[in-house]
Amino acid sequence: MYEKILVLFLVLHYTRSALIELSCSDINTFISGQNAVRQLVAEGKVEGLPPAAEMNSVVWDEELAAKAEKWAASYPKSVDPDQTIPSHRFSVSQSISVFLSNDLNYQMDFEKLQIMWFNEHENYTYGPFTQETISPSHPPVGDFVQMIWSDSVYLGCAMSENIEDELKKIYIVCEYGPSANVLGQLPYKAGKASNKLLCATDENRCENPSAKKCYE
Q1: What are the pLDDT digits (tens) for 122-147?
Q2: Helix residue ranges per DSSP H, the chain
Q3: What global pTM score does this model have?
Q4: What's domain 14-215's superfamily in CATH?
Q5: From which residue to which does any coiled coil extend (predicted)?
């Protein structure tokens, strides 16, 4: 009798976990979304923020995407304390978002995700990044500040899913390099609106900012 109960429990307790490969459409949505927000700041069109005198664009980075995949595969509850990458080109910073749904067929909308990050600007006052800014008592601003951190010109993201019984959890991890949200530093240089994004990598990458596989 006890064996039958145990077997029944194992059958009913369903779990599935997987790392979900991002499509070129997904990757392009991340890149275009980040650069669209930076363009708004460059034009001085984000309410409450001064225009950017200089604002760099972002491009996709395979090494950062690989790091994001590794962390997403762990179904994380917090950011990765390791801010290094194998090449040691620069330190990195990270954004994590977790979504829960009872709809097991729910598909992540990356445009809405970035709108959610952008909306954090309502809680943000331009100035040097401080410890108070990342305090649990402070309204969230970290994801937005990373989006507009001009020196962070490389981006890599990943997604994983965990389904347990009737609950689906989606984990989104994005890595920025060089690191954003550096204490005591400003996200960008304010001044007369530049109205354009600068290329801080090489021109070919800025003209083709997506993943390599998207150009093959």
Answers
A1: 999 999 999 888 888 889 999 999 99
A2: 2-12, 24-42, 62-72, 110-118, 142-147, 203-207
A3: 0.90
A4: CAP (3.40.33.10)
A5: none
